[in-house]
TrEMBL record:
One annotated Gene Ontology cellular component of this protein: plasma membrane
Any GO BP annotation: defense response to other organism
Keyword presence, Transmembrane helix: yes
Keywords, sorted A to Z: Membrane, Transmembrane, Transmembrane helix
Top-rank lineage group of the source organism: Eukaryota
InterPro entries: LEA_2 (IPR004864), NDR1-like (IPR044839)
Late embryogenesis abundant protein LEA-2 subgroup domain sequence ranges: 116-214
Locations listed in the record: Membrane
Species name: Musa troglodytarum
Location (main, coarse): membrane
Transmembrane segment boundaries: 49-71
Protein's recorded name: Harpin-induced protein 1 domain containing protein
Gene3D superfamilies the UniProt entry points to: 2.60.40.1820
Membrane topology: Single-pass membrane protein
Length: 237
């Protein structure tokens, strides 16, 4: 026999659930708007930076072409104009052997270079140190301070070489004494590298190397230059 209470429980058990409230449904609307805009901005910045780098590269190439085609850079010229010899002394080392095993060289000379810039623009030279050698033996260093030279100009550059009590081996010392006293000539060589930059509208180009090689012959008696051959090689613009 079915009672009212049992019927009520059966109705509640078979009754379907009410549909969910549509206001409680969560809809996926995609990523936040701020995240999408940030990604687009980042991509745009990368593209702009890449285009800027390409533009700067083309601009550098264009400037280089203008310098080469319009200005037509030429090699600067270094000529050794004068050599003044204050003293040249060779003192044999004290010892019982004959000939002596070594000798001491003292030297004081002044070198005067003529720098000629035939270019349409100025050139900047860094400080340079030129090695002074006798028969391949380094004697001292001639330092030349850095300077700027205007276009189509000439400038005198002076430097001094001082060698005090330099120890020379026996064979080189004997050759030096013979050349100075008997032949009245001393062959010296100056070599070194100079860093140069072209100045265009106040802006300097990348540094280039200038190889300097000078051969000179001086007369100790007359304290004058008797022969010179000085040039600049290896300058590539």
């Amino acid at each position: 026999m079915t009672t009212p209470n049992n019927r009520t429980n059966d109705d509640n058990h078979h009754r379907p659930n009410p549909p969910p409230d549509p206001r409680r449904r969560r809809h996926y609307l995609g990523p936040p708007v701020s995240t999408s805009s940030s990604a687009a901005s980042f991509k745009g910045c990368c593209c702009c930076l890449f285009l800027l780098l390409i533009f700067l590269a083309f601009l550098a190439v264009a400037v280089a072409l203008v310098v080469v085609l319009v200005l037509k850079p030429k090699k600067p010229q270094f000529d050794l104009q004068q050599v003044a010899v204050q003293y040249l002394l060779v003192t044999p080392a004290v010892g019982g052997g004959a000939p002596p095993a070594a000798a001491y060289l003292s030297l004081n000379i002044t070198l005067m270079f003529m720098a000629n810039n035939p270019n349409k623009v100025g050139i900047h030279y860094d400080a340079v140190a030129l090695d002074v050698m006798y028969r391949g033996v380094p004697l001292g260093v001639a330092t030349v301070p850095g300077f700027e030279q205007p276009a189509h100009s000439r400038r005198l550059v002076q430097t001094r070489v001082v060698v005090d009590h330099f120890n020379v081996l026996q064979s080189d010392a004997l050759d030096l004494v013979r050349d100075a006293l008997l032949n009245d000539r001393v062959d010296l060589r100056l070599t070194g590298d100079v860093s140069a930059k072209i100045l265009v509208l106040g802006v300097s180009t990348p540094r280039v190397q200038v190889s300097v090689d000078c051969a000179i012959v001086i007369s100790p008696r007359r304290q004058s230059l008797t022969y010179k051959q000085c040039g600049v090689d290896g300058l590539n613009f």
